[in-house]
C-alpha cells in the first residue's frame, strides 16, 4: 500500500505555518492558579495542573523551555502548537486552550484529562480493571485520532500508553492523544530518516534507519493493543541491546499462556500490525474495519459469564517509573519526554521488568550495527 513520507520542504518535517492561537505576553499567573499537582517533568519542560481564576476550570499548563542545549527551539514549540490547532476538531486529540509567552518559556494551556494515562490499564495488577470490550473501544478511539492525524499529513512518532490519556477513570472515559513534540509533517517531496523515540516502542524501520511513514505509528498501535490485552510489553529486554534485537527480529510472545484471556480476533489484529515490513501494515483507516473492532458482544469470544461484569474502580495514581525519550540534538527535534500533558505520579510503585521504561539511548547513533537487520 502507498505510504506518504516526510516533506523536507518544511524544516525537518516541522509545520512552518504561523499558529492562529494568540501568543499572550501577559503574566500567566494573573489568569491561572497553579496547584501543587505536578503532572509531568522533563529536562526542558514541566506540566502542572492549573485553575482558571475567571471560570474555575481545570487545565494542564505545559511550560516549554525556548532554549534547549544552548539552541533556540522556538520553531519546535510553534510546530507543536500548529499540530494541536490542526487537530483541534478531533475529539481524540488533547485540545489547546491558550498560549502564553514569557522570557524563558512558552506555556501551553491544555485540556485537563483527569483519568491519567492508559498505561495504568496495562499494569499486571490491574488486569481485571477493563474487559476486552473496553479495550476495543479504546483502540477504536486511538485509531480514530491517528486516522485524523494521518489524513492531515501528520505522524505522531511517539505513540505509547504514556502518551494516551483518559478523560476519566471510572466510568472509563474517552482517550486523548498527547505529546506532539516528536510529530512531523509528511508529504511526497523527500524522505527523512531519524532515530528517535522511546527504545522499546521503536519500530524496526527507525532502528534500521529506513524512511519513516505513517506505518511507523501503526506499529505503535499494535504495541499498545498488545500491552492493554496481555499486560506485558512485547519487546522490552534486560537492556537496550536486547530490546533492539527483539524489535529487529520481531520477537513477540504469542504463546497460549500470554494470550490465555485474549480472543483470536484480537491476536490477529496485533499480528497484522507487528510486522517488520512497513508496507504490509494496515493503515489506521483500514484497521477501523478489522473484524475485532466490529465485535461489540464479546460474550461469544471469551467467557459468557464474565462478559457483563463491571470493572472495579481504578486507582489512577498507579504509575510506572519515569521513562525517558531519546532524540537527536536540537535540529527540529528538540523535544524530549517532558512533553506530557497529564501524568499522575507515584514513584512508590514497584514495576515488573516487563514494564520498566527507564532506559533511553544516551546517543541515538550508538546502535549496534549487527542489530540493524
Structure description:
The chain is an alpha+beta fold. It has 7 helices and 14 strands. It has a 6-stranded mixed sheet, covered by helices on one side. It has 2 domains: 23-110, 2-Layer Sandwich (Phosphorylase Kinase, domain 1), CATH 3.30.200.20; 116-297, Transferase(Phosphotransferase), domain 1 (Orthogonal Bundle), CATH 1.10.510.10. It is 20% helix and 16% strand. Strand 6 and strand 7 (71-72) form a beta hairpin. The chain has helices at 74-86, 132-151, 204-207, 215-230, 240-248, 264-273, 284-287; strands at residues 5-6, 23-24, 32-41, 45-52, 58-65, 67-68, 71-72, 96-101, 105-111, 116-117, 154-155, 164-166, 175-177, 184-187. Helix 2 (132-151) packs antiparallel against helix 4 (215-230) and helix 4 packs antiparallel against helix 6. It is globular and about 60 Å long. The model is unreliable at 5-11, 297-333, 335-340 and 342-373 (pLDDT under 50). It holds the Pfam family Pkinase. InterPro entries: Kinase-like_dom_sf (IPR011009), Prot_kinase_dom (IPR000719), Protein_kinase_ATP_BS (IPR017441), Ser/Thr_kinase_AS (IPR008271), ST17B_STKc (IPR042763). GO terms for molecular function: kinase activity. Keywords: ATP-binding, Kinase, Nucleotide-binding, Serine/threonine-protein kinase, Transferase. Residues 304-324 are annotated as: Disordered.
Amino acid at each position: 500500500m502507498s505510504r506518504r513520507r516526510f516533506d523536507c520542504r518544511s524544516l525537518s518535517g516541522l509545520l512552518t505555518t504561523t499558529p492562529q492561537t494568540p501568543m499572550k505576553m501577559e503574566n500567566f499567573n494573573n489568569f491561572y492558579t497553579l496547584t501543587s499537582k505536578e503532572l509531568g517533568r522533563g529536562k526542558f519542560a514541566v506540566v502542572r495542573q492549573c485553575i482558571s481564576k475567571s471560570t474555575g476550570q481545570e487545565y494542564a499548563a505545559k511550560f516549554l523551555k525556548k532554549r534547549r542545549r544552548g539552541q533556540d527551539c522556538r520553531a519546535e514549540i510553534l510546530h507543536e502548537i500548529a499540530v494541536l490547532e490542526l487537530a483541534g476538531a478531533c475529539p481524540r486529540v488533547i485540545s489547546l486552550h491558550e498560549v502564553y509567552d514569557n522570557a524563558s518559556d512558552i506555556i501551553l494551556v491544555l485540556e485537563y484529562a483527569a483519568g491519567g494515562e492508559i498505561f495504568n490499564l496495562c499494569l499486571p495488577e490491574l488486569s481485571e480493571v477493563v474487559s476486552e470490550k473496553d479495550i476495543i473501544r479504546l483502540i477504536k478511539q486511538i485509531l480514530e485520532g491517528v486516522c485524523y492525524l494521518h489524513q492531515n499529513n501528520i505522524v505522531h512518532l511517539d505513540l505509547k500508553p504514556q502518551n494516551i490519556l483518559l478523560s476519566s477513570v471510572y466510568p472509563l472515559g474517552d482517550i486523548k492523544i498527547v505529546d506532539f513534540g516528536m510529530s512531523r509533517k509528511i508529504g511526497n517531496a523527500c524522505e527523512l530518516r531519524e532515530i528517535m523515540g522511546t527504545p522499546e516502542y521503536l519500530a524496526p524501520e527507525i532502528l534500521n534507519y529506513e524512511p519513516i511513514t505513517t506505518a511507523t505509528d501503526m506499529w505503535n498501535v499494535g504495541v499498545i493493543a498488545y500491552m492493554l490485552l496481555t499486560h506485558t510489553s512485547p519487546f522490552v529486554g534486560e537492556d537496550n541491546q536486547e530490546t533492539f534485537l527483539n524489535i529487529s527480529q520481531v520477537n513477540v510472545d504469542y504463546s497460549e499462556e500470554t494470550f490465555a484471556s485474549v480472543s483470536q480476533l484480537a491476536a490477529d489484529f496485533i499480528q497484522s500490525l507487528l510486522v517488520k515490513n512497513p508496507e504490509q501494515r494496515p493503515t489506521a483507516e483500514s484497521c477501523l474495519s478489522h473484524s475485532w473492532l466490529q465485535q461489540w458482544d464479546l460474550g461469544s469470544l471469551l467467557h459468557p459469564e464474565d462478559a457483563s461484569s463491571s470493572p472495579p474502580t481504578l486507582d489512577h495514581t498507579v504509575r510506572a517509573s519515569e521513562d525517558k525519550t531519546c532524540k537527536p540534538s536540537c535540529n527540529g527535534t528538540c523535544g524530549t519526554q517532558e512533553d506530557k500533558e497529564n501524568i499522575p505520579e507515584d514513584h512508590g510503585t514497584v514495576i515488573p521488568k516487563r514494564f520498566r521504561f527507564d532506559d533511553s539511548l544516551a546517543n541515538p547513533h550508538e546502535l549496534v550495527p549487527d542489530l540493524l537487520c
